[in-house]
Amino acid sequence: MYSHGRHPSSQLLRIHQNHFLIDCGEGTQFQLQRFKCKPFKINCIFISHLHGDHYFGLIGLLTTYQLLRRESALTIVGPPKLEEIIRLQLSVANSVLTYPVEFIVTQDEEVQVVYENDEVEVTSFPLQHRIECTGFLFREKLSGRRLNPEAIKDLSLSAENYKDLKGGNDIVDMDGRPHTNESLTLPGYVPRSYAYCTDTLFLPSIIPIVKGVDLLYHETTFIHEALERAIVTFHSTTIQAATIAAEAGVKKLLIGHFSSKYQDLQLLLNECQSVFEETSLSLEGHIFQIKRE
């Protein structure tokens, strides 16, 4: 058990049918079981940096997948040395994975797109820590128009009609009557966004990168009274994280990566809320939902 029952960093992010694991500290696979998550649905893992509390659980998860005969492909996004480390661990154990793994390398000098599919785009961006470290920005792609249930309920529509409507096209229904797309559909949802900023010094340069996101996770290792300690260890304080959130105009701030010196987290929350009211603690097992608009 870790200090005050808190475990190393790991988050599970779901966007539609995409299940993304962000960092994988020791014990992550057991926490996934504890909170009834389904690890086989994870199709991409993002590792921010190579300090143990952010990736020591990865090799355990990968070999568990092997033992359970996973077959579906897995993408791992992380620092340059990550693939070398994983390959070495597998080699010395004479282990051969039962599923394909693709490694995508991040770099800590500029913003880069590291993962993309039809529903989401993920970019990495530089943070400033004692070793190479990146944050991750997840942006949902613009959805197509949505069917209007009231407008279509009495119409005779084919499967092709539904496909055309979702694609933004006008149609002729099965009774031969023409319809404009706008008469039968509603505007698509506003794309949602989530930014993950783990171990880093106070870094105003990330403000334009995370500007306006729906949810920002930012480390708050220390209260602001420990500013000097934060600087020495390349971490951030409560007030610094809240300042980033306020100046970036994000909708909500989620704080975490708390120093083990703090058993009661209310002081950290209060300090953040004094600058940015819409702040919550990232507590284990809690679910934070970004609602569609």
Task: Describe this protein with a few key phrases.
about 290 residues; alpha/beta; seven-stranded mixed beta sheet; five-stranded mixed beta sheet; 16 strands
Explain how this protein is built.
- The chain is of the alpha/beta class and 293 residues long.
- It contains ten helices and 16 strands.
- The strands form four sheets. Strands 6-7-8-13-14-15-16 form a seven-stranded mixed beta sheet, with helices on one face. A five-stranded mixed beta sheet has the order 1-2-3-4-5, with no helix packed on it. A two-stranded antiparallel ribbon has the order 9-12.
- α1 links the parallel β2 (18-22) and β3.
- α9 (238-248) runs parallel beside α10.
- The two termini are 40 Å apart.
Rounded Rg = 22 Å
Secondary-structure element sequence? EEHEHEHEEEEEHHEEHEEHEHHEHE
Bin the helical content.
25-40%
Main sheet: strand order: 6-7-8-13-14-15-16
Mean pLDDT: 95
In total, how many beta strands? 16
Counting H and I runs of at least 4 residues, what is the number of helices?
10
- Characterize the biggest β-sheet: 7 strands, mixed
By helix and strand content, what is the structural category? alpha/beta
Shape call: globular
Unreliable stretches (pLDDT < 50, length at least 5) are none
